[in-house]
Batch of 2 targets.
Target 1
Amino acid sequence: MWLPDKAFELFTVSKENIDSLKEDLAAVRADRDATKIHLVTVQANFEWLRVRVNALEIERVQLIEKAYGLKIPAPEIARAPVQPLNLNQDIFNDMGEDMAKTLGYPVYNS
């Protein structure tokens, strides 16, 4: 069976293309690793700052109570739990006007 040379050219791979793809992959992996390290650093800094601000708020409330005799609640920065994305849930599902009203969202009538 005879096949034209053009058919075999479809299956040839250039070494230069492979080398450039490998270099691109190495660069993307290096950026990814640097981003991961930066993310860990930022998260640690945020956690330290959150704890420090909460401590200062508690101290402020204690000083106001001691100075003025007022008992007020201390605001607190809390980490919100990360919700995994549920791909089976329809994110564009309309909850309806009644549910929106009960949740306190503004309802616009057209």
Target 2
Amino acid sequence: MPTYISLLRYTEQGIKNIKESPARLDASRDLFKTVGADLKAFYLVSGRYDAVCITEAPDAAVLAKVMLTLGSKGNVRTETFRAFTEDEFRKITSGL
């Protein structure tokens, strides 16, 4: 399955209710599972973003559905990138 990296920022609502964040993370993990995707890793980070998620999904449309669902709850805003493994990178560049 393709890998995606999502950068998250808490909204005002999300940071106001930060103590609920672990339960929201658990619910997010369950949401990923219901659509056949997987939340592989979650990291709280410092700097411009508040968290980073590494996920896998069957395709971009499935991942978009999950991210839109999460965003609609009003606690986080996301920015997501398709990540290519080293093997995928080598295949892509071998044809140049």
